[in-house]
């Protein structure tokens, strides 16, 4: 509370964007954040990464799907805007499993999403693995096509806050194509144009 109060006293600050884990939000914490959301523009960002428990165990997230769904349930239908983070290209996930994550999020009371590609970063378990044997990772074309598939599934009103990785220059190992964020964004735009597609084009198709 002291940190949030201090931030909101700064000049030209109109709100808060709070990044956390779904297993770190007690009812008391949500009540505090809701009190700010009644007066300011507030986003609460949950790191999900995947809706699949098998993947969450493999990447040592420390929480499961049910914990995320519970956090969204307790936060939803309030002035708080909820954003979910996902990673595309996680080890041993099929493209269909990645799309299942998007379909699950499309049906939840969340207002935003950040889409991130898998990176190998120095000092992480996957980074160590990458330095030893360079495990197979998505190429740019696969990533772009999958992101466009995801965008087609999401509700048209959902705010897409990120489409690819950003930063990490000091510890970045790979894949090489991910270092050029602008090129990835341009490739996504070109793919949507080539498909004559847009966010929400396939939202709701197949329901019922």
Describe the structure.
The protein has 208 residues and is α/β, with parallel strands linked by helices. It has helices at residues 2-8, 27-37, 53-58, 65-75, 95-106, 125-133, 140-153, 181-195; strands spanning 15-20, 41-49, 81-88, 112-117, 120-121, 159-162, 172-174. It has a five-stranded parallel beta sheet. Strands 5-7 form a two-stranded antiparallel ribbon. Strand 3 (81-88), helix 5 and strand 4 form a beta-alpha-beta unit. Helix 5 runs parallel beside helix 7 and helix 7 (140-153) packs across helix 8 (181-195). The longest helix has 15 residues, at 181-195. The chain is globular and about 45 Å long. The mean pLDDT is 94.
Task: List descriptors.
five-stranded parallel beta sheet; 41% helix; two-stranded antiparallel sheet; single chain; alpha/beta; 208 residues
């Amino acid at each position: 509370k002291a940190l949030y109060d201090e931030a909101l006293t700064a000049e030209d600050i109109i709100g808060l964007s709070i990044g956390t884990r779904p297993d770190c939000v007690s009812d008391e914490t949500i009540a505090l954040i809701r009190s700010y959301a009644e007066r300011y523009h507030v986003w609460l960002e949950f790191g999900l990464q995947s809706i699949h428990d098998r993947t969450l165990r493999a990447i040592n997230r420390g929480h499961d799907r049910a914990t995320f769904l519970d956090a969204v349930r307790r936060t939803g239908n309030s002035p708080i805007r909820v954003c979910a983070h996902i990673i595309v290209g996680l080890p041993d996930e099929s493209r269909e499993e990645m799309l299942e994550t998007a379909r699950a999020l499309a049906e939840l009371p969340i207002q935003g999403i950040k889409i991130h590609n898998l990176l190998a970063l120095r000092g992480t378990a996957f980074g160590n693995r990458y330095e030893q044997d360079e495990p197979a990772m998505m190429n740019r074309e696969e990533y772009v096509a999958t992101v466009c598939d995801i965008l087609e599934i999401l509700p048209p009103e959902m705010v897409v806050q990120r489409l690819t990785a950003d930063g990490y220059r000091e510890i970045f190992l790979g894949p090489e194509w991910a270092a050029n964020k602008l090129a990835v964004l341009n490739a996504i735009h070109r793919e949507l144009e080539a498909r004559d597609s847009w966010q929400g084009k396939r939202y709701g198709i197949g329901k019922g």
